[in-house]
Sequence to fold (321 residues):
Amino acid sequence: MKKAYICLDIGGTKVLGAVFDENLKIICKVKKKTKAEEGQEKIEERIISIVEELIAQSGISKENLAAIGAGAPGIINEDTGEIIYTPNIPWRNYNIRKVIENKFKVPFFIGNDVKMGVLGEWKYGAGKNMEDIVGIFVGTGIGGGVIINNKLYSGARHSGTEIGHMIINTEGPYCNCGQRGCLEAYASKIAITKDIKSQMNRGRKTILKDLMEENTLVIKSKTLKKAIDEKDELAIEVVDKAIYYLAAGAGSLINIFNPNMMIMGGGVFEALGDYMLPLLKEQIKKFSMPVVLEGTEIVQSKLNDDSILFGSLALINGKMN
Ligand SMILES: [Zn+2]
Fold:
């Protein structure tokens, strides 16, 4: 083997790592719990142990390892590798690059996880050969990223493109960020779960009553899919409402950026894309100017769970070439 790359998807609950060979194929994967509550040093040790395990399991030699890349939540300076702030992981103004580079003696690059997801889709997934892309990832929350002229847009302080916190209605429901009426407060899984629960409390009949566990804070995407497949009235109503607000957000972004492509991803679209995408395309017409919308292809992400891994690989590629 000539060259290999290790890429990491560092989340608040799990760290996923993969080895890519020189043909940019994944040859080995390892997943471990982050255990963020154990503190910065323990997380650091765990990340190092995952990289070591990936090297051992894949059989690559340390000389073949060309670089390590990663995506993590929060505000990250992609140029310096400094993590400015991370929710759910105790990292503040923390230079993880130094730690990893000192340990493994290869270049290390890191960026915001959702932005890396969009970068991955642009370089290796649904958005290949597209110059201007907007990506929206719908999961527990809503995140996104923007590619302008073949370059990931980051913002002056590396905290731009918080698409989930675009305010759709100033008098709307409260969001986790403290604001009211953010897109995330209407169309994320947290919002969908709240809507379902409040309707159930009003006595609405739904098969979700049997499918959801008693204290569910965030409904599983596959549970929602099951209810939609069974034509459950409440599930359809709540998901359709989320699609309506997503269309308002996505339509506005199309008006602003005039992208070649809009990519819809995240756990919700992975599970429910077949149902949601055609409806979203129809609804977007209400919110986007026809002349702008005409040039925008609206598609589903291709890399799904691996998008952050591929995005980290794209980050390595962009920085080393
Ligand atoms: Zn918000």
Summary: The chain has two domains: 4-118+306-320, 128-301. Residues 165, 175, 177, 179, 182, 184 surround zinc ion (CB under 6 Å).
